[in-house]
Amino acid sequence: MSIIPKLLLAFALVVATALGVVAVLTERAVGTEFRAYVQGGGQAYTTRVAALLRQYYLARGNWSGVEGVMEAFKRFPDDRILLADGTGRIVADTDNQLVGRELPKIDGVTPQSINVAGRIVGQVVTLSQATSNVPGRGGMLGRIGEAGRGRGAAATTATDDLQPTQSPESAFESSISRALWVSVVVAGLLALGLGGIIALQIVRPLRLLTRGAEKVASGNLSYRVEISSRDEVGQLAGAFNQMAQSLENDQSARKNLLADVAHELRTPLTVIEGTADAILDGVFEATPDRIRAIREEAVLLTQIVSDLRDLSLAETGELPLQKAPASPIALAERAIRGANVAASLKGVATELSSQPDLPDIEVDSGRVLQCLGNLLGNAIRHTPEGGAVRLILRESAPPERGITYIVEDNGEGIPAEDIERIFDRFYRVDPSRARRSGGSGLGLAIVRKLVEAHGGKVWAESNIGQGSRFHISLPAATASRPSRETARQA
Ligand code: ADP
Question: Does 79 contact ligand 1 (Cβ within 6 A)?
């Protein structure tokens, strides 16, 4: 069942219940109050009639001729006044039918006694049409008929004459009740109409979202839902669009990576294949130089594959970091020692300088050495013979708490337009040269991921022709104490 009929049903049920309860309660309250009002009024009326009749009696000393004045005591033409003497025999009836009979007992109607000098000289009863609607009692006027039926023809005639017809009071009650039920129906219809509009407004964005989810599920990751409302559905649409955007980003990153990897692997493979084929075909001689060239390409392939593994683990946050407090200067010394062979082969000097009393850092030492080794290797590779590479260690500038490694060279430098991109995977300023020198193009991308995994930052600055500076800042260990080591020359 769709949500619209459900909502409509819910609206209709709520409105019908609420209005029905209001209508029933109001109808009851109006009926009860109104009857109490009419009956209360009737009692006061009887007392007034009794007082008037008492005066009549006081003036005459008996009831003779009283029927002549009783007509004038009626409130409405339909009213009826019965007067009995002290013994209960009716002496006057405004309808002139029950005279001489005994005053009948009528449920809910108490005759009003007329006392003169401590003696009951008469009893008076007033009847009106309105009281015939009292529930559970039947019509009072009807009862008089029943009372009179056993007493002869006159009483039977009275019954016929006294059949209830609709009084102004009951007409008032039924018109109130009709108005109430009409308003229930009208309000119900209005609620259904408005409910339908509201239900449509709720359902429309949900349908759009469903369509969006279907599109994305079927592979159309660029599909976005257009819902501008600021309510919960609008927020859901925003979250949905964000999800689709990040899926699309992931998909394009994956495509790019695959394309990059295929491209990077193809170059050394082509060299290996071409050289091997030429040797097999007898075009080239299998000299040690040719075989060395094949081996170098194989080494590059191994490097790319192992760097790719590191990078993918670091990117998905799955690279396990064995963090422990470490002395930053001790790490710097090990990194410089590791770079010294390559530096001396190239004829480049290395140097280490450090501020004293630096705080310990809590890091995976192997990974930090990998980063420093990478930066130092790059610096040596891009610095000509006779140049110098320095590893500088200092406290990070406030507000950061920690240390910063700076790898500085006075080599070729990096053009300003490339500096932002050198941390991207497979980005090389001079692709052919970099590849010849054995770089996988993934080194700086891995450095960035590793440093970020430690909660640190890496950035570079460079002047073309003058050299480059690479910075790695790492946060201090939480309960760090200053390292005892001081600056040393490598
Ligand atoms: P590669 O394996 O090619 O060295 P990296 O990610 O380590 O890959 O470096 C990316 C590119 O950044 C390099 O190809 C090089 O062009 C440039 N680069 C890195 N370090 C330096 C440096 N110290 N001086 C000049 N260029 C550098």
Answer: no
